[in-house]
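Transcriptional regulatory protein, Spelaeicoccus albus. Tokens?
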Amino acid sequence: MSDDLSVLVVDDDFFVAGLHADIVNSTPGFAALAPARDGRTALRQITASEPDLLLVDTYLPDGSGIDLLKTTEIDAFVLSAATDPRNVRTAFRRGAFAYLIKPFPAEELEGRLKAYARYRRVFESGRALDQAAIDRAQTMIRPADKAKPARSATEDAVVDAIDSIGPDASVLEIAKAVGVSRATAARYLAGLARSGAVTLRLQYGATGRPEHRYSLGAD
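Tokens:
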């Protein structure tokens, strides 16, 4: 008998359900059951197969996938294109472990599944849990945040220069403050702008090309 965690995908879109089932099957330790296209079929499969986890869409032909969570004690993720706060809050209130907005990268669902597997392992010993184990289980259910790559010393110097100069600093001002060439400053500024560490604004003069101006971003 397989030790894989069984997952039931509930989605009325045959193609999307297949994609999500493929992600489940490609994640070590998981196996997808035949997808269900409506709530009624899902309930029959839950009774027959007793899956470990549900991946439920919000909109089903015979009702709301979130309402399905009220009728079962099976752990569940909600996978939906619905983004209104009421839907999301209701999903969490009814016990959803995750709410992923469709479409999402395969890696996102895979990461959530692996986090769920770690969560399940906390309870496999059958022994009474202490507070540390309970707290650990709560943190495990979410995948680890993707760490932002560390900035280089020159990147830090560029950010510090903008902080000292103030908003709308020019490339030349930043280059002088850091002690690098204008071209070097422009190269680092382009990378920092892509990461969101700084924001770029084009300042248009009376003639000639617009000048790049930089301010600190939200990072």
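The chain has a mean pLDDT of 87.
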